[in-house]
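Example S7 (structure tokens).
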């Protein structure tokens, strides 16, 4: 059977807790998954590390990556570019690792087109008041940026129907458990086995 890894796309509005839940999953299952570090033109926040949280680049550098086919997907989100460098994701999948992308919905829909056998999970807040509170509590964005993020959140939640699963992030540990259950079940989906059998059947003919 094919040992290529699974691409796991975790989307959901900014501040819902994608990073927090993903870290909880990685802490429990340290070696099972890999995380794709995104590229962005946004300014680095205090405490962020280049190459760990993001690859922080200029607009020109980002546009060069787009032009040279270096991005699996990219989108503009609240005045900045964000995107997934293609090379690392491919390497990890070829090595049989399951790779997490933590990305907004426009980019996720591009991945859906390119990688139809990916797993698409939408992390959603218990309600919008709680989402706003999480953005405020995080303390990383000014009020006007929080308002823009909330505006975008409403549009993003309307895109939930394009995902395979929705998970409410009420309690971090519960959301992490649910996502792990989804991933376990996804490994046994018939569509993951068919290409190998079809190839073998083709070789027999
Ligand atoms: N279940 C939860 N209950 C309460 N607070 C939470 C929960 N999950 C995450 N948080 C808090 O909400 C804030 C936003 O979380 P986090 O940065 O993980 O969100 P995110 O979806 O990754 O955001 P972004 O997309 O902007 O990177 C953080 O301060 C985090 O500690
Ligand atoms: N399409 C993509 N969206 C991404 C990527 N990396 C992060 N993001 C999303 O952007 C917003 C804002 O992030 P923040 O770090 O400024 O709070 C959030 O929804 C992220 O999930 C990416 O590679 N592609």
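Recovered sequence:
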């Amino acid at each position: 059977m094919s040992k290529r890894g699974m691409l796991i796309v975790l989307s959901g509005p900014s501040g819902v807790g994608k990073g927090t839940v993903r870290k909880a999953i990685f802490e429990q299952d340290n070696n099972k998954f890999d995380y794709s570090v995104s590229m962005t033109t946004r300014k680095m926040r205090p405490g962020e590390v280049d190459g760990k949280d993001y690859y922080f680049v200029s607009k020109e550098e980002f546009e060069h990556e787009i032009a040279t086919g270096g991005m699996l997907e990219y989108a503009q989100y609240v005045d900045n570019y964000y995107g997934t460098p293609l090379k690392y994701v491919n390497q990890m999948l070829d090595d049989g690792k399951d790779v997490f992308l933590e990305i907004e919905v426009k980019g996720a829909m591009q991945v859906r087109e390119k990688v139809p056998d990916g797993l698409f999970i939408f992390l959603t807040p218990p309600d919008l008041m709680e989402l706003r509170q999480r953005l405020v509590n995080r303390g990383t964005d000014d009020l006007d940026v929080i308002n823009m993020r909330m505006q975008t959140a409403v549009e993003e939640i309307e895109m939930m129907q394009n995902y395979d699963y929705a998970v409410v992030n009420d309690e971090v540990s519960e959301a992490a458990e649910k996502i792990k259950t989804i991933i376990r079940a996804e490994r046994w989906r018939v569509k993951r086995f068919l290409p190998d059998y079809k190839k073998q059947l083709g070789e027999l003919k």
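Notes on this example. The CA atoms of residues 30 and 101 lie 16 Å apart.
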